[in-house]
Structure formats: C-alpha cells, structure tokens
Amino acid sequence: MSELRFDNQTVVVTGAGGGLGKAYALFFASRGANVVVNDLGSSHNGQGNSSKAADVVVSEIKAAGGKAVANYDSVEKGDAIIDTAIKNFGRIDILINNAGILRDISFKNMKDQDWDLINTVHTYGAYKCARAAWPHFRKQKYGRIINTASAAGLFGNFGQTNYSAAKLGQVGFTETLAKEGAKYNIIANVIAPIAASRMTATIMPPEVLENLKPEWVVPLVAYLVHSSNTTETGGIFEVGGGHVAKLRWERAKGALLKADASLTPGAIARKWNEVNDFSEPSYPTGPADFITLLEDGVKLPSAQPGPEPDLKGKVALV
Ligand code: NAI
C-alpha cells in the first residue's frame, strides 16, 4: 500500500509550536512537505510571545531529515506568514488554521478584552491567513484549507461565550470558502477536534487525555488536504481519540402557515409540534434550499389553515 504523500507541496500550520499544530507539522514534514511552522509562542490565554516554540519544532523536523522554516508572527499578520512560505519554498498549497487561545470566563464577568482577543486570534487570524493564501490558490487552481472549530462552538459550553462564538464562526467561514473555492479546486473543511494539549490539560483527567493524543487527529486532516480529495469540501468533522464523524444540519419538516394576517404568535403556538417534528427531516446545505422549501410549501396541505383547536375554557392564543 502506498502512503499519501505531500512531496513538493508547502504546508502552513499556524500555532504549530505545540499541541495539535506540532503534530500536524511533524506529520506533513515526514510525508515530504515543506512546512512553515508558525507560532507566536504565547501562553494558553494569549499572553507574551517567544520564538522557542516554533524553533523547537523546526529543529525536530530538520533532525529527522525534513524541510521546515519557522515564523513567529501572530496569525493577525497572515500576510507575513504566507510570505514566509513563498519566500522560502516558492509556493503555498495547504493552510491549516490551527492557532488558538482561551479566555474562559462566565458571561456575567466577560470583558471586552476577553471577547476581542479571542475573536482576533480565531476569527480575524484565520481570515487573514486564508485571505493571504487565496490569490496563490486561485492562480495555481489548487488549494486546501482546514479551519478549526470546537465542540464548544457547535454546542455551547459554560464559560466560553467568546470562544464558542469564534469557533462556530469557523464553520460559516469554511462553508463559504468551500463554495467560493470550488471553481478553483480550493477545498475547505472544518474540524472540531479533541486532543490532549496544554489547552485541555487542566480540564480533563490524565487517564482520559492518554487516549486523546493529537496524533489521532492528524490522519483525518491529512486525508482532507491531500490532492486525492477532490470532492469532500465544506464538511464539518468531529475527530479525536480514534473517532471520526461528519456532522450536518438537520431541519425539521416544520410548519407552513399562510403568510397573511393569520400568521400570529398564537398560530405559531398551535403549530409548535410541527415546528419541532424531526420525523421527516431534510439536510440543507445552502440558503437556496429554504426558497425551494417555500415554493414547494405553498402546494402543501399544511400551508392551508388547519382546523381551529378546541379552546373551550382556555385562553385563545393569537
Ligand atoms: P495549544 O495551546 O497546545 O496550541 C495552540 C498554539 O497556538 C500554541 O502553540 C500557541 O502558542 C499558538 N498561538 C496562540 N495564539 C497565536 C497567535 N496569535 N498566532 C500564532 N500562534 C498562536 O492548543 P491545541 O489544543 O493544540 O489547540 C489547537 C486548536 O484546536 C485551537 O484552535 C483550539 O481552539 C482547537 N481545539 C482544541 C481542542 C482540544 O481538545 N485540544 C478542542 C477544540 C478545539
């Protein structure tokens, strides 16, 4: 069996000085890629900076016979990071937007600084790196992007409103990149990983973390960004500890009400079961699906006003 290789390709991995990013960088280098090891070297909550984190990974790659160069910019300086790839290796093929920090705090105590820093690193940082890579991807009609979401973004998590907002943002960002990139063979997917790192070290017990090596997230990412993947784009994947699963949106069949004066809050209340009825779901993938649903819907019997419920002895809802 031949392995999936990345010879002659350049991969930029942001936040590659530790955790998941380091695992990606070591893997891609071991499979023949030139790797830009970006890391600001900040603490887990975004304080300070140091060149050490990136340097250690570059040394490790070189010692193993691989090709890598360090970049110490914050992801906010996406142009400089992508420039490092172009100047050193002449190209950029793959961008792994991975860098991240936490500023966990209950919403009651959230300060603008906590909100802004998280959104700057995750949202603006991912945007800046992808924006700088985009013209190269378009020109060469080839590009692969991974963005990093989180279960906290998909489902919410106590103390993480800032992080959740930024992480779900990665999903919408990826979906649109996938649509705009399709014509140029630019493929974009988003992962919600789970892995042992300094980020999770304080919130999970050691015996759980032992089974969540960052290395177990790498193969999915490598598969998605390999040139042999020409169709899987705009996907959302949960990955960690050997489990890999795709997620998607599910829409309930829903209620269709006449769009006229009879469309009152009470009319919605009477249709509440239908609004929540997932027995005949659909799986929308774009805004156009909603328009089709409305167009089809006017033909459906549920668009007609249903029988009035028996409201004897009850307050009528309107
Ligand atoms: P980590 O803290 O081990 O690694 C993150 C790296 O990003 C650090 O080396 C840090 O110096 C670097 N970094 C931080 N801010 C930066 C900036 N502005 N510019 C450049 N580099 C910067 O964390 P981990 O766990 O490896 O996380 C990687 C990504 O995966 C993050 O986006 C995180 O939010 C996400 N994630 C991780 C999960 C996990 O279970 N470890 C769960 C869900 C999401």
List the uncertain runs.
Answer: none
Strand-and-helix sequence, N→C? EHEHEHEHEHHEHHEEHHH
- Which structural class matches the secondary elements? alpha/beta
Percentage of residues in helical conformation: 25-40%
How many DSSP E strands?
8
Whole-number mean pLDDT: 93
Query: Could you tell me the strand content as a percent range?
Result: 5-15%
Spatially, the strands of the biggest sheet line up as: 3-2-1-4-5-6-7-8
**Whole-number radius of gyration?**
23 Å
Describe the main β-sheet briefly. 8 strands, mixed
Which ligands appear in the coordinates? 1,4-dihydronicotinamide adenine dinucleotide
Which overall shape is indicated by the principal axes computed on the Cα atoms? globular
Report the span from N to C terminus: 67 Å
Our count of helices gives 11
Write the layout of secondary structure elements.
Blueprint: E1 10-13, H1 19-30, E2 34-38, H2 52-63, E3 67-71, H3 78-89, E4 94-96, H4 112-140, E5 143-148, H5 151-155, H6 161-181, E6 186-193, H7 206-209, H8 218-225, E7 236-240, E8 243-247, H9 265-270, H10 272-275, H11 288-297
Parallel strand pairs: 1-2, 1-4, 2-3, 4-5, 5-6, 6-7
Antiparallel strand pairs: 7-8
Bound molecules: 1,4-dihydronicotinamide adenine dinucleotide.
